[in-house]
């Protein structure tokens, strides 16, 4: 007796192709809304943990030239 096909549920079983297919089924307005919500989410994450932000190191031109030698 053949076994019925196994259906896997969950985020970890979803392929990139399936994600793209489901995204392409959305209307253009829904796609834009989805992208905007994702950008807001990532901005909120960055603001929640300021240590994640890159530290900019500023030096004068003279000190940068000395280090290059």
Kindly describe this structure:
The protein is mainly alpha-helical and 69 residues long. The chain has one domain (11-68). Helices cover 55% and strands 0% of the residues. The radius of gyration is 23 Å and the shape is elongated.
Overall SS class = mainly alpha
Oligomer: single chain
Indicate how many domains the architecture comprises: 1
The residue-averaged pLDDT reads 80
Instruction: Give unreliable regions as ranges.
Output: none
- Radius of gyration, rounded? 23 Å
C-alpha end-to-end distance: 77 Å
Q: How are helices and strands ordered from N to C?
A: HHH
Percent of residues in helices comes to 55-70%
Total count of helical runs of at least 4 residues: 3
> What is the strand tally?
0
Shape: elongated
What is the beta-strand fraction? under 5%
Summarize the main sheet: none
Helix and strand arrangement:
Elements: H1 16-24, H2 28-48, H3 61-68
């Amino acid at each position: 007796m053949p076994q019925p096909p196994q259906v896997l549920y969950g985020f970890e079983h979803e392929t990139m192709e399936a994600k793209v297919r489901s995204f392409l089924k959305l209307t253009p307005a829904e796609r834009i809304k989805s992208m905007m919500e994702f950008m807001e989410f990532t901005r909120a994450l960055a603001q929640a943990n300021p240590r994640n932000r890159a530290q900019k190191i500023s030096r004068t031109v003279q000190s940068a030239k000395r280090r290059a030698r």
